[in-house]
């Protein structure tokens, strides 16, 4: 649920946030490890711009593989995860093991979930694509069987199973792209929660700095030695045929490598 601040100060006037789930106190310690800060630097040199100075953060170990096949688990609680846009759910399995999974929409505390090759098609269950009916919304889909979910892991995301042919499933991504994935790959049923995440307004620069986001300077405001867009008299704009990155590569339009080996798995390209 999206919460908007009252107009008390200029910085808070347009700010908003998401209501966080209740804090968990019985989560196993091995599922929370300290996340080391790199601040966008390697060997003292900036390798990733606009990163650094964030708050201390713990990484939650997520079970993207859903490896406990055939073992039923119960949803114990939901938790906020600072490392991703979607909330996570704590699952306790019948053998006492506890793991984190991504929280789909409609899942409640006390619900039962299971991962199996031929599990019931129900929200939170994980099963192979060949056993899922066409038109089902999915998330956490494997690109390679046994590798763990890589597609559809952001808040509000849902991939739609459109067809099955020649040993591959055709999945429509949120971008509009249609991609082929092996039918033996595992996928979890349902759309992910926190769909209002995209509507959050930070309100002030301080919130971005605590997340590790440093200020970004426009290329047109820099000098020509620092950026291809720089230079010129007064506000002269980009001054190039097409926008470029700081390193001179195209930044707008079709920037995907034409010879990339995964091109053969793309049935329909997204609209650029």
From TrEMBL:
One of its GO terms (cellular component) is large ribosomal subunit. Residues 121-250 form the Large ribosomal subunit protein uL2 C-terminal domain. One of its GO terms (biological process) is cytoplasmic translation. Residues 206-216, 255-272 have a biased composition (Basic residues). Keywords: Ribonucleoprotein, Ribosomal protein. GO terms for molecular function: RNA binding; structural constituent of ribosome; transferase activity. Pfam families: Ribosomal_L2_C, Ribosomal_L2_N. Residues 203-272 are annotated as: Disordered. Residues 40-115 form the Large ribosomal subunit protein uL2 RNA-binding domain. Gene3D superfamilies: 2.30.30.30, Nucleic acid-binding proteins (2.40.50.140), Ribosomal protein L2, domain 3 (4.10.950.10). SUPFAM superfamilies: Nucleic acid-binding proteins (SSF50249), Translation proteins SH3-like domain (SSF50104). Belongs to the universal ribosomal protein uL2 family. This is 50S ribosomal protein L2. It comes from Candidatus Daviesbacteria bacterium GW2011_GWA2_38_24.
